[in-house]
Amino acid sequence: MPDRLLEIDGISKRYGELIALQDMTFDVRAGELFGFVGSNGAGKTTTMRIVLGVLAADAGTVRWDGAPVTLGTRRLIGYMPEERGLYPKMKVGEQLAYLARLHGMTAAAARRSAETWTERLGIAGRRDDEVQKLSLGNQQRVQLAAALVHDPRILVLDEPFSGLDPVAVDVMSEVLREKAAEGVPVVFSSHQLDLVERLCDRVGIVRAGRMIARGSVDELRAGGAVRLVVDAPSAPDGWTAGVPGVRVLARNGSRTELELDEGADDQAVLKTALATGPVHEFARRLPSLTELFRTAVHEGPKAPESAGGAR
């Protein structure tokens, strides 16, 4: 088994008749950035709270390095909740040092770590301010500092980029890459799918409490529906009507974007386009993560999980 593997294995959770999670299963490997995406209410936050022990699962197990997670293990986790989890009237520096000491740091080490992370995240000048007096973006930076201040071995972050300006997003992204480079497994949820696509080694898409797709962004994109871009200046509207299994997604001037059903013949599309005149472009276009997400959430998965997405 790989070192320092965080495993979420068959987690289920119900609230009466409501199924919040059903057999939620995935892992986050050492040094990996794992993007956890889904619509509001899909089960992302519930999963994270079970990992933290804030909620108890009805079934399933959370393991770290092959053993069930315990209170001692949870002291190793840096957690950033989506909602504010800070003391609003406590000063930033004092609060971060206090949280570090709760995780076992000495007073001196806690103070140094608080100074380090407020410098790193651009809020050193606000150490003596109460959290409630900060902007929402700066509160988010303090929230991340609170997750990092005790030098965690695992990071679990719920919407860490919410409310951040572009500069802060860049700083946050760099920090997460650095922690992954140190061998820390990082799992974070986000609705900013362009960031997830850019940052993450693997992605899991959640729908109605179940993991419906999982793998690297390239694996997920390759498993999506085939899309073609055809630039045929002489082609009239409806030129694909005689080709079975082909849908027009968009047309912009002479360029037509198509989606092909499984088994549809792309060479038949090319032949039909050439019959109308010259073809300046004929290329496959891989769907973005946003497009994959929309398809998976609204229609369910079209392809099995990639072989690269272990449990």
Automatic annotation (TrEMBL):
Native species: Amycolatopsis rhizosphaerae
InterPro entries referenced in this protein's UniProt entry, alphabetically: AAA+_ATPase (IPR003593), ABC_transporter-like_ATP-bd (IPR003439), ABC_transporter-like_CS (IPR017871), DrrA1/2-like_C (IPR025302), P-loop_NTPase (IPR027417)
This protein's UniProt keywords: ATP-binding, Nucleotide-binding, Transport
Name by which UniProt lists this protein: ABC transporter ATP-binding protein
Chain ranges of the ABC transporter domain: 6-233
Listed GO MF terms: ATP binding; ATP hydrolysis activity
Domain of life: Bacteria
Family classification: Belongs to the ABC transporter superfamily.
